[in-house]
Design goal:
Blueprint: H1 2-7, H2 15-25, H3 31-50, H4 56-70, H5 80-86, H6 91-121
Length: 122
């Protein structure tokens, strides 16, 4: 059920966060689901916060979360794939949304810089 509602949404970079927020507000979440949501939410926040890091600590934190997110299932109960599946999410879809959200701000920034350059040159 939850997987279907997530898959019909667009790949907007905020969709995953909105989905996790809805999970968190649900009065039907047991302690196990709450833990899984917290783990995934923390990973999403770290991924988004540090993907453009320039300092060594930020780069290290991004590498760690990226490795956890992109690593295929390895039998560990708290692997990214298992966490997603236990929450009814498609891990490949979540990975794709994260990667797309990673490139969107850079594309917008590049577009703005090009537009600004054109205006100044005109």
């Amino acid at each position: 059920m939850a997987e279907d509602s997530f898959n019909i949404t667009s790949s907007d970079s905020l969709v995953m966060q909105q989905y996790l927020d809805a999970f968190r507000r649900s009065e039907y979440l047991g302690p196990e689901e709450s833990l899984l949501v917290a783990i995934l939410d923390d990973a999403v926040q770290e991924y988004r916060k540090y993907y453009r890091a320039h300092d060594a600590e930020g780069k290290k934190r991004f590498r760690e979360v990226e490795e956890w997110v992109m690593h295929e299932r390895d039998g560990w109960i708290f692997s990214f794939g298992n966490v997603c599946e236990l929450l009814g999410l498609d891990p490949d879809y979540v990975r794709r949304v994260l990667r797309e959200s990673q490139s969107e701000p850079a594309e917008k920034e590049n577009r703005m810089q090009r537009d600004g350059t054109r205006r100044r040159a005109a």
